[in-house]
UniProtKB/TrEMBL annotation:
Native organism taxonomy: Bacteria, Bacillati, Actinomycetota, Actinomycetes, Kitasatosporales
Stored InterPro entries: DUF2795 (IPR021527)
Compositionally biased region (Basic and acidic residues): 92-107
Residue span of region Disordered: 57-107
One Pfam family from the record: DUF2795
Superkingdom of origin: Bacteria
Protein name: DUF2795 domain-containing protein
Length: 107
């Protein structure tokens, strides 16, 4: 399950969801899209039973392969390793901003 599903797969399955949404609403929405794999539905079933404000919160809550593409640069992954997160939160799930040089390059 977790090894074949990426955070991007989960987020893509939730493109039509109106946020905020509960875990049950997210699971139901993924089933309704028809394009969600069994792995995506299973990953959503495994998230904590909270209300999620946006797709980023969902992406940080699903258990996926740490190497899956969250769209982070090597600098952002290094920052995740340096900073502390919430207790019990995996390093690859820590929210980090883009470094200033990457912000400037994106302009």
């Amino acid at each position: 399950m977790a090894h074949s599903t990426s955070a991007r797969d989960v987020v893509n399955a939730l493109k039509d969801v109106d946020f905020p949404a509960t875990k049950d609403e997210l699971v139901e929405a993924a089933r309704r899209t028809g394009g969600a794999s069994d792995g995506v539905v299973a990953a959503l079933r495994a998230i904590p039973p909270d209300e999620y404000a946006n797709k980023d919160e969902v992406a940080r809550s699903v258990r996926v392969d740490p190497a899956s593409d969250l769209g982070l640069s090597p600098a952002q992954r290094a920052e995740q390793a340096r900073m502390g997160g919430r207790p019990g939160q995996s390093q690859h799930l820590r929210d980090v901003p883009k470094p200033p040089v990457e912000e400037e390059l994106d302009r």
